[in-house]
Recover the amino acids of this structure.
């Protein structure tokens, strides 16, 4: 007696990036000037690859992300167009208009949203404190630079969680972010 088995051919499974490390406020986006809508802790400084994991989490909540704006200080590679999950996200970078610790996200349906970008090399305890502070629904609104400066002061380090900035920069409110011409 013989047994017949059918083996399906092996198919490669696409490698998915790990989900984004993200913390959002419980209230809706755009709560007011200079407020952050949460925090994002990317795993690297490779924005094109990190943006896919972020979009996976935010697209269902906020609508498809179509544009981003960042300060290029912490992003070594910053193309004008980034292919993300089957669509193109246009990227703009602004050295004086945007806080270097913020990513501004826009979609066709709503926005803008501002997220504190926690440097990837930040230690887990500092990152957890920064994520909690950026997504807190209570207390006075703080800018991304103010949060990073406070964390530097707390840890006694000239660099908040080894982020490489070492200096406090002027903060910019959400009204100024809208004026970047995106």
């Amino acid at each position: 007696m013989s047994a017949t088995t059918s083996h399906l051919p092996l198919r490669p499974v696409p490698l998915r990036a790990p989900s984004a490390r993200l913390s959002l406020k419980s209230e809706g986006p755009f709560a007011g000037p200079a407020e952050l809508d949460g925090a994002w802790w990317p795993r690297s400084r490779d924005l094109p690859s990190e943006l896919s994991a972020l979009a996976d989490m935010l697209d269902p909540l906020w609508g498809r992300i179509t544009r981003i704006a960042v300060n290029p200080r912490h992003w070594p590679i910053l193309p004008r167009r980034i292919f993300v999950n089957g669509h193109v996200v246009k990227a703009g970078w602004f050295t004086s208009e945007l806080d270097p610790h913020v990513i501004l996200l826009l979609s066709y349906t709503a926005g803008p949203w501002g997220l504190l970008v926690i440097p990837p090399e930040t230690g887990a305890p500092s990152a957890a404190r920064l994520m909690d502070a950026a997504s807190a629904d209570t207390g006075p609104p703080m800018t991304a630079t103010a949060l990073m400066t406070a964390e530097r002061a707390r840890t006694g380090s000239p660099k908040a969680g080894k982020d490489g900035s070492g200096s406090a920069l002027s903060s910019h409110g959400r009204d100024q972010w809208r004026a970047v011409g995106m």
User: Anything to note?
Assistant: Confidence is low (pLDDT under 50) at residues 160-182. The longest strand covers residues 87-93. The helical segments are 47-62, 124-134, 144-155, 174-178.
